[in-house]
Amino acid sequence: MTLNIVLVKRVLAIGLGAALALLLLPAPVFSQEISWSLKNDPGTFDPAMVDEQAAEMVRFLTGGVLLRLNRTTQQVEPALAATWTVSPDGKLITFHLRDHLRFSDGAPLSSADVVFSLKRALSPQAPVSEEFLDAKNVTVDAPDALTVRVHLPKRVVGIGKIFDEIAIEPANRPSQGRVTSGSFFVADYKNGEYVRLARNPNYWRHDAKGVQLPYLASIKLDILKNRDQDELRFLRGQYQLIESVPPDNFSALAQKAPRAVHDLGPSLNTEQMWFNQSPAAPLPAFEKAWFTSKNFRNAVSLTLRRADIARIAYSGHATPANGFVSPANKLWYNQSLPPVRENINTALTALAQDGFRKNGATLVDREGHPVTFSLLTNAGNHARERTASLIQQDLAAVGIKVNVVTLDFPALIDRLMHKQDYEAALLGLTNVEPDPGSMMNVWLSSSPNHQWNPSEKTPATPWEAEIDRLMNAQDSAASDAERKRSTDRVQQIVADQQPFIYLVYPNALYAVSPTLSNAYLTVLQPGIISNIDYIRAGAK
Asked: How many CB atoms sit inside 10 A of residue 312's CB?
């Protein structure tokens, strides 16, 4: 599971500080195509239904949006909308489209297409609808061919960020990325092999000299589950970038191509494990009792040696975590949260309060059931596989047996999000944006991405109800100070309850060929190709 949370409202000091620009001179000869890899096939090419990282990458490259987040300045900028205004009460957003917009197939783009696309994004099935809060009561209309109005039932702070995630499609003919209003369109796709994107000949954007963008003619995204192949193909010149270098490959790559690798420090992303607390899960009642116990979850958390995970599983390219907001996120990180220190004695005391006891080397519950569970993670991710092994070792110290199970990503997502047939999971969340409003789709109890117990009709616990209230409050508060108080409190509740047991904040690790020019590295995802319109490539 990765959640691509898009857009920000303000400039923050992140990682090493300001975003790092690659000051590379253009190569003398420019190529028509650049390549890199996706770790799995996109789950969909329907931009309204994107809910995982590979599909999000394709949407970013193909989807024309009303507003675009500049990942370097972290400011929202006009895109298909030349201008936009928000009413004083925050309930009416008015977009004014650019003149003479066209889709990649040459058809004109008007306000009717925008209304159609926004309504699709507001449907209950669309993941982005959760960020509108009360999406069913949001209405959209178009008073003329170049004007679109979005009527909100209440103020939503930083609403502009949401429109970076909504691709504008042709009305009444969803095109699955084949007809787009963005930089590229899907020209070819072979399942398990590659996605090829071609330049949109009708793209609206031009550079300062009037040259139509993007500069590149095409992009090839190989489906490459074996991440070790990234390094080999990069060194051979087959790939021009690696969007996320695995930490165990980073040091080796640094020795072979020191000018190409970049460690920007802690990212906004998190790695965590969690237990399945869904009442619908096909688990025995005694296991559900374990997983819904605050004492049990805290005991597990207190047993894990996060510094070892950062050092061993991530080769030192990670920071021990204590919550869902990274310390790189200077504005929203709760500075009062203490680091999590492993303490087996405290863990055993917490377990004893729930009737757990040691029977020899094995921990058993009050009914005598041995405490054992399977931990699911995705195959091929060496950092996670090593983390799972370290978790297995750490929990053995208190008598808990962990069986590590690795699955291909699509099978894993099916188990987690559709069948809810699992005991525990180890995955990460990709946080593109620092603003806490972008995290609504994880923390609202009604959300399908509320992973430990998704799509609750009503909050299952008082603390989840409090998180709902606080997240809604921060998303409509009149001041940042109020939002900060609510967000800090949510972080404290999460630290107390451990619905997600946060492990590390991985560093932002990139590899960029010296043959690329105009590439800018940022902690915000996508970290290299956020200015894809201006990237050039060539052989020196």
From this structure: 16
Band (417; pLDDT cuts 50, 70, 90): confident
Is residue 477 located within the same domain as residue 523?
no
- Are 480 and 521 in a shared domain? no
Model pLDDT, residue 21: 35
- Residue keyed to tokens 């200015």: 531
DSSP percent split of the chain into helix, strand, coil, nearest 5: 30, 25, 45
CATH number for position 44: 3.40.190.10
Is residue 455 predicted with pLDDT exceeding 90?
yes
> Kindly report the CA angle at 438 between 432 and 444, in degrees rounded to 5?
135
Q: What is the pLDDT of residues 361-397, one digit of tens each?
A: 999 999 999 999 999 999 988 899 999 999 999 999 9
Q: What rounded mean pLDDT belongs to the chain?
A: 89
Domain that holds residue 517: 33-218+513-537
Residue 171 to residue 183: CA distance in whole angstroms? 19
Integer Cα distance of 362 and 372 in angstroms: 9
Higher pLDDT, residue 13 or 388: 388
Judge if 401 and 279 occupy the same domain: yes
- Cα angle 243, 513, 76 (rounded to 5 degrees) comes to 50
Does a structural domain hold residue 51?
Answer: yes
Task: Write the DSSP assignment of 126-170 as a string of letters.
Answer: SGGGGGGSSGGG-EEEEEETTEEEEE-SS--TTGGGGGGG-----
How many folded domains does the chain comprise? Answer: 2
Distances (CA, A) of 48 to 122, 189, 197, 421, 529: 9, 19, 18, 26, 21
Residue pair 527/17 in contact by the 8 Å Cβ criterion: no
pLDDT at 540 over 80: no
Q: Name the β-bridge partners of 359.
A: 362
User: Where does 459-538 show beta strands of DSSP type E?
Assistant: 500-512, 516-517, 520-521, 536-537
* pLDDT attached to residue 147: 98
CATH code of residue 476: 3.10.105.10
Q: Are residues 323 and 202 in the same domain?
A: no
